[in-house]
Design a protein that fits this description.
This protein is an alpha/beta fold. The protein is 35% helix and 21% strand.
């Protein structure tokens, strides 16, 4: 068994290395991905080993980067694009929404679009606005895009492999505050389905649903609740679009309560869709209304205020208590 304990960032690096080795059509491209190895060093060493034609330092022009990736995909390549920070993706939003997401439908399925767009997202690193945001719901709303995010090193390695092999475009959100968290990675394992949620912790009294950076926070909340005799189940979504409602439903039918947690603002966030759909599916099983915990509907604050802005352990536990009080 090729099991290693790796930081999430290193697991992504190993995944890209494996993809480049296995498929000569895989191309990594983005600002500073080559000589620098990316600002978070996710692509460290790849240009040295695979050359400047496979790991391409691009100009600072996100629209041009994604537009070039679309052209490469049309010629049979599998481009993996890095957007340096979450807030930098918006110059490329037009290309992603009007071209990348629509090409397969526009061609009645005859044109494949195997493009992965990697986006470090979320806060917790003391960075300013446009470096700490969570725009995942904007992309989940767009038909034709797959939107996924790993919460641990194993998923980082395998989900990126699966995203690169996909013939549909995948927006791959990387929880930057978890880049340095270590976890076991079995590079010879059989990965689960890319768009299937996983139960990260079993419980019977309440279900916490989260993804990406908030999974660890919810596991910590479940452990703290257990000390008070409360049994909390934690579901890691892994995929935001498509969304695995079946796994959530199964959990909620058991626990009768649901709290959805994400860093993105609660207003029009992905938690709203989960709350609405689970209320429809589980109306007669719910013992309390579905509650949501997330960021505020405000621009991302300066670093010294981000702990007040981001949902933390106390806000998650407060929602757990409120739900159990019904």
């Amino acid at each position: 068994m090729a099991v290693q304990k790796l930081p999430l960032a290193k697991a992504l690096n190993e995944s890209l290395r494996t993809a480049l080795e296995n498929d000569p059509k895989v191309v990594v491209m983005g600002l500073d991905v080559g000589k620098l190895g990316g600002v978070f060093r996710i692509t460290d060493g790849l240009q040295k080993d695979f050359g400047e034609d496979r790991v391409v330092d691009t100009p600072l022009a996100e629209s041009g980067i994604v537009g070039t990736a679309i052209g490469l995909a049309l010629r049979g390549y599998r481009p993996v694009v890095e957007i340096q920070f979450d807030g930098f993706v918006f110059p490329a939003y037009d290309q992603i929404v009007t071209q990348l997401a629509k090409m397969r439908a526009r061609s009645l399925g005859t044109v494949k679009m195997p493009v992965v767009i990697r986006i470090p997202y979320g806060g917790g690193i003391g960075a300013v606005e446009h470096h700490s945001e969570s725009p995942e719901s904007l992309f989940a709303h767009v038909a034709g895009l797959k939107v996924v995010t790993p919460a641990n090193s194993s998923d980082a390695y395998w989900m990126l492999q699966q995203a690169i092999r996909s013939d549909d475009p995948v927006i791959f959100f990387e929880p930057k505050r978890r880049y340095w968290d270590k976890g076991e990675v079995d590079t010879e394992a059989l990965p689960g389905e890319l768009h299937r949620a996983r139960v990260a912790r079993e419980g019977t009294d309440l279900t916490l649903v989260a993804y990406g950076p908030m999974v660890k926070t919810c596991l910590e909340a479940a452990a703290a609740a257990a000390e008070e005799g409360k049994s909390v189940e934690v579901v890691d979504l892994r995929s935001i679009s498509p969304l695995d409602f079946d796994t959530i439903q199964t959990s909620v039918e058991k626990t009768g309560r649901l709290v959805v947690v994400h860093e993105a603002p609660v207003f029009f966030g992905s938690g709203a869709e989960i709350a609405a759909r689970i209320t429809e599916r589980c109306f007669y099983h719910l013992e309390a209304p579905v509650l949501r915990v997330g960021g505020y509907h405000a621009p991302y604050p300066p670093a010294r205020l981000e702990e007040e802005y981001l949902p933390g352990l106390d806000r998650v536990l407060d929602a757990v208590d409120r739900s159990l009080a019904y």
